[in-house]
Amino acid sequence: MAITKIEVPELFDFGSDNSAFKLPTGTTAERPTSPSNGEMRFNTTTGFVEYYDTTNAQWWEIDYYVPPVVPSDNFNTVLYTGNSSTQNITGVGFAPDFVWIKRRNSAEDHAIYDSVRGINKQLSSNTIAGEATNSSPYEGLNSFDSDGFTSGNNGGTNRSPNTYVAWSWKAGGAAVSNTDGTITSQVSANTAAGFSIISYTGASGTVGHGLDSAPQMIIQKLTSGSQDWYVYIAPGVIDATSNYYYLVLNKTDVKATTGSTPATATTFNPVSSSGNYIAYAWHSVAGYSKIGTYTGNGSSTGPIVTTGFEPSWLMIKCTSSTELGGASWLIYDNKRSTSNPRNKRLYANENYEELSSALYNLNFTSTGFQLLDGTANFGYNTNGNSYIYMAFA
To answer: How does pLDDT run across 136-162, given as a tens digit for each residue?
Structure first.
């Protein structure tokens, strides 16, 4: 390797050039075999600039500051009352890409929208139905706005005098084409917050998810027809085995093992039946989100579960038993229950109105949550049963 040495310069001035100073690039395997002290390069394997230290005979990464995720910039819950017209729902704090709405005061199907499929295209987590397009005069979600969304006169989103809750997540805005897998997907990804929305056509192969590490939970739904909501859980989340499990969002079924290959840092194996699919993928992000498990103890001083932050939203599902029908997907949040104990539930797999009972009590703590009732068959703390949860700060 030729080396050009510049003797004792006082200043390198590139101020008149609007291009860039480029370092040599290459993989870890392509590092120089006899590097000199202080030699710098960009390592395409690690994604970091690195330099060589002859004293320690080692390459060191030059780290860069990654600001922590601000929870309120990526997830929020808002409450509102329907007006049977057009209503701008504000206070979300950002332009959402995924909005999940549920009527609280009476039974009604869940209403799920995302910016990848587009406005007024509704899915319901409690049914197997494919995508329904809301049309005039019963539009559901008319637009994704800078501080929330606009809802039309639809029973699932804005009918007077009903009350509603909307849970909103930020992905990556307009979808982009992703060719990481053998099946091209359209992806809106928020890598910092560990969340992406993926649209694809079902077939055998792999699909790019757009995140920078493997998702721990992937919810997939056929939009062009009727099919269950498949929820794939990465190995190591539910238990210490290498099993790749799945659950069903619209049912109380316990976990089952899938023969699919677990997701990687770039791709996942899709539901392989034909048709159009949407997938929602998450992984835990320190201080913002956590996907994990706990075991019930059947006590009124139940398990203390550590997430690393105080949850604002929590979904729990029993994975080991149907608990006589009590193994529903239970949703709590800090806007419907503003103080401890939190005991207002909605059910992702049911169209039920909001239910409240001391038998549902749990506390949100500064570092997680604690179950407060050990009565069997209420879905969250039966002695010996295993549970999965997803929480957001």
So the answer is: 999 999 999 999 999 999 999 999 999
- The C-alpha atoms of residue 286 and residue 290 are separated, in whole angstroms, by 7
Residues forming beta bridges with residue 221, ordered by sequence position = 278
Rounded distance between C-alpha atoms, residue 84 and residue 102, angstroms: 15
- Report pLDDT digits (tens) over 228-254: 999 999 999 999 999 999 999 999 999
Q: Which residue, among 343, 342, 336, 361, has the nearest Cα to 164 in the 3D structure?
A: 336
3-class SS at 73? helix
Q: Which residues are within 8 A (CB) of 245 and not within 5 positions of it... i.e. 6 or more apart?
A: 232, 233, 238, 255, 256, 257, 258, 319
User: Considering only CA atoms, which of 12, 14, 10, 46 is closest in space to residue 30?
Assistant: 46
Q: Identify residue 205 by its one-letter amino acid code.
A: G
User: Residue 200: is it exposed, middle or buried by C-beta count within 10 angstroms (0-12/13-18/19+)?
Assistant: buried
What is the DSSP secondary structure assignment for residue 183, as one 8-state letter? B
Cα–Cα distance for residue pair 392/291, rounded to 1 Å: 9
